[in-house]
Amino acid sequence: MVHLLKDPDGWISVLKLSNMWEMEKIRELAIDKLTSIRMIPVEKIVLAKEYHVPQWLRSGYQELVDRGEMPTTEEARKISFESATGIFQIRESTMRGRNYGNGSTFTVEGVFEAELVVEERWQKDHFTPS
To answer: Which of 1, 24, 27, 41 matches a 20 to 30 Å C-alpha distance to 17?
Structure first.
């Protein structure tokens, strides 16, 4: 158990099993432990998509938007080219001060709205009492 406390892979396994078995408290513990470990944005996004953690998805996308360099081809492959395209849109919009044409700018919330809604719904459906 001591190794699990210091090993992100161990906490990822706990998260995986708590999702499978719908063990909310253990899932929350695993998410808290993994959140306290410094993850790179791409890792955060990949784990968020696999284990339905919308807060990691949102923050991972935002970190990629805010960092100095563009996502690499390898990073785009890992998060999906569709997600990478969204990151590029937000970065380009921010850099050039563009908007949708109706006054709203490209944001993580706007570009990834559908994906975030799906992940939030999954979490609600599996871990919120009816």
So the answer is: 41
Tokens describing residue 17: 């099993």
Residues ≥6 apart with Cβ < 8 Å to 10: 3, 4
Q: What is the CA radius of gyration of the chain?
A: 16
**pTM for the model:** 0.86
Sign of CA dihedral 56, 61, 62, 68: positive
Measure the CA angle with vertex 128, ends 46 and 56; round to 5°: 20
Q: Give the model's pLDDT for residue 76.
A: 97
- Where do we find the tokens 């081809």? 73
Q: In whole angstroms, what is the distance from residue 62 CA to residue 67 CA?
A: 9
- Whose structure tokens read 């459906």? 125
Instruction: Supply angle C-alpha 29, 30, 33, rounded to 5.
Output: 85
Structure tokens at 42: 């791409």
